[in-house]
Specification:
single chain, about 270 residues, mainly alpha, Rhomboid-like fold, two-stranded antiparallel sheet, two-stranded antiparallel ribbon, 4 strands, globular, transmembrane
Length: about 270
């Protein structure tokens, strides 16, 4: 157990928090210890009944079965590459920007009345990671079709479209917020440059939060911006499956997101 804890502590802090959050929310639902009805997002339940935890849990419910393994692996790999690449020694800034992005996802999802933001949240992260990938980086769909990694978020949206208009509508806010994040912080050029975006001055974490996380300035020799996915391999995207929307009786809420990815090998 001590060895496992030691290995977990080696994971960058923001990546570790997101992965632990995903497992902590998803596993109890998979084991039927908690009903999805108690964790989905509802404006009425959050702001009128003050069930504030729903703002957190609605971002981390993954799909069940083997598909969740792919989703968790994709979340870990993408976040780890971002946090050890362009956000090296900037975990507090990354956490702060993720928080702002999450607020943006909730707001932009109002027209589609989403119950869960998991898919949009992951798509937002993938959009930023793909935009910061080195020029020429490639990815693969099921190991069959190879294409530039910067198109991966749009391929995921296309797969959502196959599941129906409602599925892609729930995912689209993640792509919108991800684009605004990349453009605002990193700039519009492929790969971006640190400080190149119009919102970069506001992207830094508050001083108290940075101090709490022990953030230090980026050291000389750190990876250049846009190298988050340098040396990465291919993604394998698992199939998706959908379930019925939640009902007040405690049935499953929203979509059971089955698409995910895992990066294997090297280019």
């Amino acid at each position: 157990m001590n060895e496992l804890i030691a290995e977990i502590k080696k994971i960058p802090p923001v990546t570790r928090l997101l992965c632990i959050s995903s497992v902590s929310v998803t596993l109890p639902v998979m084991l039927k210890m908690i009903s999805p009805y108690h964790i989905f997002y509802s404006f009425e339940k959050v702001f009128e009944h003050l069930e504030i935890w729903r703002l957190y849990t609605s971002f981390f419910l993954g799909s069940g079965g083997i598909n969740y393994v792919f989703e968790l692996a994709m979340l870990y790999r993408t976040m780890n590459e971002i946090e050890t690449g362009p956000y090296l020694h900037k975990s507090a800034d990354l956490a702060w920007q993720l928080f702002v992005a999450s607020v943006g996802i909730v707001v932009t999802s109002i027209p589609v009345n989403s119950f869960f933001f998991t898919r949009a949240f992951v798509l937002c992260i993938i959009y930023v990671g793909s935009a910061l990938a080195p020029p020429g980086a490639q990815t693969s769909l099921f190991g069959l079709v190879t294409f530039p990694v910067r198109y991966f978020p749009y391929v995921m949206l296309g797969m959502d479209l196959l599941s129906g208009p409602a599925a892609v509508a729930s995912s689209l806010p993640g792509a919108i917020v991800g684009h605004l994040w990349w453009w605002g912080i990193w700039g519009s050029e492929t790969g971006g440059t640190r400080g190149g975006g119009v919102l970069y001055p506001w992207g830094a974490a508050p001083a108290w939060f940075a101090n709490w996380m022990g953030q230090t300035p980026t050291v000389a020799g750190a990876p250049e911006p846009g190298r988050a996915n340098a040396g990465g391999g291919v993604h394998i995207v698992a199939p998706r499956r959908t379930v019925n929307a939640p009902e007040a009786g405690g049935s499953t809420a929203g979509y059971n997101w089955g698409s995910g990815g895992q990066r294997l090998g090297n280019n």
